[in-house]
Amino acid sequence: YGDHRDLHSFPTRRSSDLRECGILTNGMVVEGPEFRRWSDAEVDRVLDRIQVMARSSPSDKHRLVSRLRAKGEVVAVTGDGTNDAPALKEADIGLAMGISGTEVAKEASDVIILDDNFASIVKTVMWGRNVYDSIRKFVQFQLTVNVVAVALTFVAAATSQDIVSVDGAPVELPLKPVHLLWVNLIMDTLGALALATERPSPLVLSRPPHGREDKLISKKMWRNIFIQSSFQLAVLLFLLFADYNSALESDDIQKRTEERNTIIFNTFVFFQVFNECNARRINDELNVFEGITKHAKFIVIMFSIVIIQIIFVQVDAISSGIDLVPLTAVEWAFCLGVASLSLPIGLLARMYGQHVDGDAKK
Question: What is the pLDDT of residue 207?
Answer without folding.
Answer: 85
